[in-house]
Amino acid sequence: NPPCPTDWLVLQVPARALLEGDTMTLRCRSWGKLPVTKVRFYHEEKDLRGPHKGSELSLSPLQQHHSGRY
User: Where does the record place the region Disordered (predicted)?
Assistant: First the structure.
């Protein structure tokens, strides 16, 4: 069965532990072959406006306030 419409996108995060000062890159990918061209990232329900590289969001240097839900 194909995924339901709300499951077509997945947010990929690094698998390793991250420390303050590291760079963290979040990537929005689709399950299928649908292209992902316009992405809006949210942190704790707040819209993260700003320069994003396509479907990626890089946070650098990583700081304590970057923790939470995306």
Answer: 47-70
